[in-house]
Amino acid sequence: MQTRKLGSTGPTVSALGLGAMGMSGAYGEADRAESVATVHAALDAGVTLIDTGDFYGMGHNEMLLAEALRGRDRDSYQLSVKFGMLRGPGSFFGGPDNRPEAVKNFLAYSLTRLGVDHVDIYRPARLDPAVPIEETVGAVKEMIDAGYVRHLGLSEVDAETIRRAHAVHPVVDLQIEYSLIFRAVEADVLPTLRELGIGLTAYGVLARGLISGHWTAGHSAGPGDNRAASPRFASGNVEHNLELVAALRQVAEAKGCTVAQLAIAWVAAQGNDIVPLVGARTRERLTEALPALDLSLSSDDLAAIERAVPAGAARGDRYPAAAMSQVRS
Prior knowledge:
Shape: globular
């Protein structure tokens, strides 16, 4: 397994990370045994970076990972944990709570559910407009000093917020969506990260399956699948977006790889400071994703990909309107 270093002060991690959100209901019901087996397969393949959130399935995801990681050497993997999103029964989201006392409360619950004595990277899932980022980061720094957290990360924030947070305590990485169909980070955020020596962990590299090569016209999201509310998958948008995937498929076939492998490899090729997170929830999808790391893209390949999926060509926001108001990137 290839490795990459998260920023100038962060840990060395596998060049591909596993995002566990889909194992806890985000895309409909998931098979628990298969989820555990997928985590085991990822670890056995050399994947060390595992990303979760304390609000994924209201703690379900952390408890699932505790089961999957039981018996594994704690130093053999890194846990990236997002916190701060308030939940209620059903699908209710109450917005972020990044108060210092809430940070410590959330961490205490995460440590217990995960069954570990520390998390490797701890990050607020969204910016809390009611709490200065300096106060949130200060609370995480206290937990770092106490040994409960190893590193500070951020998620879905703009360049100004990154600078303010980094001035309080070194940030090792920003987790943010980055894919062939969402490249907004390239304008201000990515240059700021590189100026400050901060890594990027890219989620949504397959746009929640939209550009995986497995989503087809006429396919509909099942019960409990968040993609049913996603503008990218809405009628009128999804057909256009799948035309981009069809063009990308031609490039992939010429390259002798799958669409998903090409999309993952493209993100990885944007810099050695970027680690793609793949939300595989089955061993089949994981097995497909892993060879992307060995896919070398020439300048001609990159140009062909750009022609197939020009920047800004996709249609539809990445979240419904209410959720879009909470992202700053």
